[in-house]
Protein 1
Amino acid sequence: MRLISKKTLLLFFLPGAVFMGMFLIYPIIKMAVDSFCKVGITGSRTFIGLDNYIKAFSTGGMGLQLKNTIIYILVAVSIETVLGFIFALLFESNYKGSKIIRSLMMTPLMIAPLVAGLIWKLMLSSNFGIVNEILVRIGILKSTSDILWLADPRWSLFACCIADIWLTTPFMMLMILAGLQGLDSAVTEASRIDGANALQEIFYIKLPGIKPVLLTALSVRIIDAAKTFDIIWAMTQGGPNSSSETISIIIYKQLVKYNNTGYASAMAIIFIAVLVVFTLVFMQSLWNPKKKA
Amino acid sequence: MEKKSARNTAIIIISALFTLFWLFPYLYVISCSFRKGSEVIAVPPSFFPKTFSVENFVDLFSRMNTGGYMLNSLVTAVVSTLIAVILGSMAAYAIQRSGYKISQFLVILILCLKMIPTSCITVPIYEIIVNIGLYDTRLALIIVYAAINMPFVMWTMLSFYEGIPSSLDEAAYVDGASSLQTFTRVILPIAAPGLATAFIFTLFLAWNDFLVALLLTSTNAKTFTVGLAGFLSAYSLDLGPMCAGAFLFSFPVMIISMFAQKFIIRGMTAGAVKG
């Protein structure tokens, strides 16, 4: 039985579709067109074929930003996953007050990425930042100017990662916790009776059990980390010397600061295409086996 | 038995320490808000304020139109969220229940739209807004937020509708209800937790937005995040008021997310954990 006629489908879907068409689909079509053009300041467009794409892939193109984005994703997401897993294991057991501690832990979750960036910019400042002061007091650094988190090209990207890790580890914890709570307790109990120790239990029972949840969480985080803009903008604006410039930042800079609409559009189209392909491939591999089963 | 309770105590202490460590940045910002502006940038920095002061808040209010920007953030976030949730939940229902081939395509399309980085599409959006004469208005932010958050609402609602058996729709249909009646009287009441989840998330997404407001506003419709970022470009003297602003801006968010925790957890794990 068809519950919804084609007409009703259209009627229900159309109002939302108008919004999305206007501000999501049309901008992408426009960028796709612009990516093949040289766009003048006055808005005049001359067709130049694949030149913008060739520029993006040649030296001085987006190679450095791609490298930075990948480093950012690898560092931030892997540390978030490990910490999130440890936290989830700790918070898994129920005791008096565990709910309060759990919800306190969750509080950074909804803070604006911009605010997270601002907070860490203050804390990582070289002269009046409290992080270096603490590191000196506990003897890790000799002087507070040993690590210039935001001004040293070797550290700036990692400084941004720290803010990201602080902001989103609770998300990882939450996802993994949900996975752990969904596990059949009979299996863990059986393994205990068979003499498995805590570590064996974690690596042979719990980790394989939460694999689907973990993979979903990872894919969500990888895409979000790739898109990160606010945190980096608040902390370093991509500097110093492009050392913390990711793809999101370079596209924005080329569009707004340098007015290279054509070139920026080409980079944006490549970026969106990569994200979409990643999502579809991931969906295919994660969800299809389940549906067939 | 004794061994087990000792282990539990250890877990409690370690968890509490970790949590405290994690909250440290936020506690530090609160502590910085309530001290003198000069003390925020004092060398060496200290965690506890030497003197209690509301100077930073006074500065914040005198240096930027705090109330006005806050109101802009609130109005645009609430109205855009209402639009996105109402239209998004309707559209998602039609897609989930229709069973046409095209609806499968639409599901994938929505997932793809959800992946688009805002930093990529803000400039074309800026051009559209300028062309229709809405630059620096709240209306511009409202319609843009509603549009870019709609795929998220739809995605959340799709997984909720999936859990509602379509026999309910059939029963309503047999009883002579129209599609709209079925949707509003039968399905929506059951999907209320889903709506709450979508609403809270979208509200925070819009409230926390920085990039869209940065490009689409200048004075009248400027939101709090854009105002706050203004303290960045200037001198380190501004860090005191900046802390006060960061505290004011995120405090309501933290309180709401404590109370609405159930919905937030559900929203984050929706689709990932099949119950």
Protein 2
Amino acid sequence: MNKRKIAGVLLSLSLSAGVMAGCGAASTGGSGGKETIKVGANLELSGGVASYGQSIAEGLQLGLDELNKKGIDGKKIKLVKVDNKSEAAEATSGSLKLVSQDKVAAVVGAATSTNTLAQVQIAQGNKVPLITPTGTNPDITNKGGKVNDYVFRTCFIDPFQGTVAANFATDKLKTKKAAVFIDSASDYSKGLASAFKSAYKKNGGSTVAEEAYVAKDTDFRATLTRLKAAKPDFIFLPGYYEEVGLIIKQAREIGIEAPFMGGDGWDSPKLVEIAGPKALNHTYITNHYSSGDPDKKIQDFVSAFKKKYKGKSPDAFSALGYDTAYYLADAIKRSGDASPEKIAKALAKTKDLSLVSGKLTLDKNHDPIKSASILEYKDGKQEFNTKINP
Amino acid sequence: MELIQQLVNGISLGSIYALIALGYTMVYGIVKLINFAHGDVFMVGSFVGFYSITVLHLPFIVSLILSMAVCAVFGVLIERIAYKPLRNATRIAALITAIGVSLLIEYGFIYVRGAQPEAYPGDVLPEHAVHIFGAKINSQSLLILGVSVALMIILQFIVHKTKIGKAMRAVSFDAEAARLMGINVDRTISATFAIGSALAGAAGVVFGVYYIKIEPLMGVIPGLKAFVAAVLGGIGIIPGAMVGGLLLGVIESLVSAFGYSLWRDGAAFIVLILILIFLPSGLFGKYKREKV
């Protein structure tokens, strides 16, 4: 009697599980005519670079809300978010969860190159497209001359940022002796630095000092004192805002007056809090976009974003998150049945797609060709300096 | 000139290590326990200082004292809850508990407020640059050095001139005999934890003002370095912790100064290994012969 009861319960459980599993597969399988398409977001919502992940999530959400209002061929996109806690291992397991449990049609993320590289294998192995809004390391889409078919990005790549910085340093700032100070634990930092050095050398400048630090360091005074002794007139500092803020503050304290320049890794309000507005004067960054750019498309985005997030001004991460939503929606539209394989094929063929961060065309390595903005910090505010086309 | 600057850098860093190392050394001296949760008390102190400056708008000195008071209570709580029940257990049990408490504080803190970093406001202390022999010294680092030295002098006074200090020295020398002499050993141990934790709290605030960025896992590396500093000076010996801390700070700065900045953390632990091999009882420790 008792046994039979248990058997009955088990049987009904397994039946309902089967039905539910069927539902799950049906709603995400993507064999045409479905109402919702699940898209995963694997972002840095907490941890060391939480501000990147949160900004991307806000932009992505705004983009998807706008798209869902109209619908993509009658379909809606449902976002499944995972927090990778700014750690590579968490990024890998988060991606695995999205692909195998939630069965998403595509994954957006992560914000940093290191956390994106940690997911590449899963995207390739499961044939689910992965789009990083801001992972700028070249290895993400192309490793050892072989293109990763299922991996894409919305931003430009490191060599481009490094080259732009080098050109700006020699042409606009008229410098001749550069120092490079990198985060030796970051693929992003090393990528920018090597591109910068080769372009700077080509422009006739020389790199007089090279130093390195490790993420999470707090005391840079000793190394900076050594840099100061080399008397550079320009310092290239391709790092992330937590350390960059401390480095610039401490550098100004020990009397380094030379201009600093970095990449999009600086772009966070925390940078100004840590370094202080005064120390940040005379520093520049290359970035994907500027909210101060007078272009109409950009200003429309800025006002929509401010409306949704209580007057908050969108940074480049939000802009790229927003662009990623449109980039993906465009591919879904062209894919026909919204299956992961078809979406990946459609993404690879993206051409002249007009986005907030510039017109996007993919080259054969899945890397977008688009423009870069140079911003200058003035009393803690980013000011649009110039725009450089590829 | 560059060398002077590097020495100044090293001494500022070292005085923070020294403040944390004092707590390690005092606790070890009295209960023979490496309190690995000490680095996290330092972190809690830093956050208490941060919130009292930004939310309560208290001036630096008041925040410093508040943070020391909160940490003293916190330290006593840790001792009462986690270590007191293990007073007669094996030392390895207490050591493992200490690691557990450390992880509990770190991740409990992350659970409550998240892992994102905070930045101390830049205008807590006035900032001037002082030029000495061509080295540019920040007035903040001088003040920090001043606070550290003042706290160490107060500590020396407590240990050598007050009744509780006498009790601490007695318990440290021989707990059983001290108990026979009518000293309340439990209260003395609590007092030691309170003083040690208060110093860690002060170090936390000083660290925040000097290095700006604070986060929940900030106590791990300074905690380990301070432990190295305590061993370097001779664990259990108070002047040893001060000298050890300052020495370690200077060693780290010099390693970076010679262009091996990536080896800096490694250098601290190489020092630990060398000391354990060649001078196991530290610079200030006396060589004790085991009697059979």
Protein 3
Amino acid sequence: MATAHSRAAARLTMAPAVVLLLGWMLIPLSMTLYFSFQRYNLLMPGDEAWIGFLNYEYFLTDPAFFAALWNTLLLVGGVLVITIAGGTALALLLDQPFWGRGVVRLLVIAPFFVMPTVSALVWKNMFMNPVNGLFASLAKGLGLPPVDFLAQIPLASIIVIVAWQWLPFATLILLTALQSLDSERLEAAEMDGAGPLDRFIHIILPHLARAMTVVTLIQTIFLLSVFAEILVTTNGGPGTATTNITFLVYAQSLLQFDVGGGSAGGIVAVILANLVAIFLMRMIGRNLDI
Amino acid sequence: MARAVSTRRKLVVTVVAWTVGLLIFFPILWTALTSFKTEAEAIASPPSFLAFDWTLANYAEVQSRSDYFRHFLNSVIISVGSTLIGLLVAVPAAWSMAFVPGRRTKDVLMWMLSTKMLPPVGVLIPIYLLFRDAGLLDSRIGLVIVLTLINLPIIVWMLFTYFREIPAEILEAARMDGADFKSEILHVLLPMAVPGIASTLLLNVILAWNEAFWTLNLSASQSAPLTAFIAGYSSPEGLFYAKLSAASTMAVAPILILGWFSQKQLVRGLTFGAVK
Amino acid sequence: MRSALSLTGAAVAALLGTSVHAETISIATVNNGDMIRMQKLAGHFTAAHPDITLNWVTLEENVLRQRVTTDIATKGGQYDVMTIGTYEVPIWGAKKWLLSLDKLGPTYDADDLLPSIRSGLTIDGTLYAAPFYGESSMVMYRKDLFEKAGLTMPEAPSWSFIADAARKITDKSKEIYGICLRGKAGWGENMAFLSAMANSYGARWFDMGWKPQFNTDPWKQTITTYLGLMKDAGPPGASSNGFNENLALFQTGKCGMWIDATVAASFVTNPAESKVADKVGFALAPDNGLGKRSNWLWAWTLAVPAGSKKAEAAKTFIAWATSKEYIALVAKEEGWANVPPGTRSSLYANPQYQQAAPFAQMTLKSIQAADPKHPTVEEVPYTGVQYAAIPEFQGIGTAVGQVFSAALAGQMTAEQALQSAQALTTREMTKAGYIK
């Protein structure tokens, strides 16, 4: 087992990472916490004053807040469902032998490399635009009225854009997990007369549970702070239809330059993120003995 | 049923897989194609797929507006720099977490990951003020610092899960042979860890390359990477699909090509502990 | 291994080293046509001033505004020249965040600047920003479609004529939409249009006690007319259309009328970009006979933040970019129709410009018809035609813009939208301490 010497060395080797992250978290966070109790608008210097919980009161009673909370859940949940279901299907497909597997794999992972800003711009303008977009052209070709995606189904459209970007990640992780499955178990089950669906539910799915947990964890971390896709496509609208918590805090602090209000929002977002984190970690802890 | 896959089945799978693959890839392909069209052809309805007059004018136009290579170089420096520094800090940390776990290791790891859930907008103003006072605004080194810090949890987590898969017995054996602490790392652990480190490195370069919030907000002209390059195209006046496509292609192509070429290395370590 | 590490370290350090030239100025600018043209012509400036190097930061309007505001308010000092609008100049100038531009050289001729534009950039007799181009808004329409429908556009139309004509021209089966108006949320997007439109209906943002006025009849008429008109005669997806989107629609022949910035005139009449270049007519923005037309006043200007360490070089550049000589340079290189309009009287007196720009007189009349000091029928405590020049307006205007954009997308009724706008504006104004 590990000696006292190596334990001390271990603590020492962890120190830089821990100290850096602690600093990165605590310094700005304590400043944010301080600002959140201040009247502090960037455009009105000299007007700062201690105002207690007023910023929190305004942020939490903002009708946009609950809309944003709900949108955040829908966005994270929607993308997770699509990427995990789609990723599983794609992994099963790519695990089969067929001609040109290597190339198809390259095609499937490509969206992962695309900048969120670029993918949002491309989807918004070249595909979803109701007049000049490709989908509109398709609809016209079929004699259907073009759908105005970002006005009629804004949140769903954003979910699709984000899911497109994250599908490759889910596929890759699930595919790796799938390939580690002992093929003898599948063959044995087949010999026993289990159909494809039975085999999927009783052997493949349990085997993938761990990978699905990992995908959920990593993706949630990134999905909670989806921002560029919203800024580029809808600016949080129409109304508050696509405003998530991150975007709401952005609107407060960088559109209204209300640093006090934005900071209060930031602190609320941090608390919410931590709730999600605790929940996720519990789930991971059960599923993933590390 | 015969175990050998019938040719017919293979044919069906091939058709389905290629169709799905091309559909997923289509937005990128379409963008690349559009970048070679004229603005008028770019919005033509019905759209032309390949039969148009190919032109490089959009690339020339984009280049004349902003110097691509300066932005490109900044992107390379920032993403590679932050990844290398991140690895320097994370490899030792992940190593000790994986091989000398304490009671609190799991908590520390989870705490690290949870720092990534904080919305960056919430702390932009504090960071901006700190950077101003430190003279780090619009500097590559400032962006390297920020990107190192925001990606550090992912680096640690990824390395940790990879190191965990290295059997501890090998280390024990090395220790029996009288290898000391340092040579244990250098001669035993590192060679085994190289694939995981390579994979982590690639993933991080990709994440850092595509990071658009901090790079846009903390850079102006000197340090602006490709994310800022593309920000000027979000809706210029008049017809702009072809120019947008050209700028997008220029911003995405380097990282896409890198990703494709190193796909094997990237995928090998990209398990995040998904496989037992 | 150790040497390998230190080598890597050295390489990283070398790569990270930032090089700073003594006379490199950073210019933050917006990605619209005139600014991009200036960027292309900047070689003439650097040829004449070899000691000054220009670094451009070209951003989309909203991103630009956020970046420069953050920078100037925190005194970040990232930019030496900032492109800002007439909304920012009075607020920032009053705070002494900008350097005085009174001395831009003997040949600058500040008296040549259009009075209505110049007065908005002057605080207590000091000029704080130099106008690069100025604009009002007006009606651009398709003469061929009007002729086909048997209609004649008067020089100063009323809203009832516009509404009627828009519905007559519309032919959705051919993708011809009678009228294109802004719907994309933002205080500088849909709210610029709607606030100016509301002025012509006798509405105002605030009364003299800073109470929001969305619960009044004039606003109700404005929003109901706007929504009805866009539903019957507007293009699909209007709730995400801003200036640029509408410009693309008009240039591709999909709009019968478009009420928007006067600078658009040179784009829609440019045969290289516009399919309908030879078919465009112009008219003043519509009114309701109440004495105010629905046109706004705006200028993009160049200013030097007070923290700039290269103020002299920055001023030299601004003096060049907003000079008569620059206008002549654009005329020589790109033709008279493409010069930045709306800043100098001498331009409108120039016969070559009048000939090349059929929209020149209409632009000048529109600019002169706007009065930022008295924008509304009833008295108001703020200045600004399509905005109220208070720091809170950006946030409030954008939030209200979101509400009206949602109404345009069909997510709520006019009534609900107005109630919601009234509630949120009251909330913000109370928080900011205007309403006690």
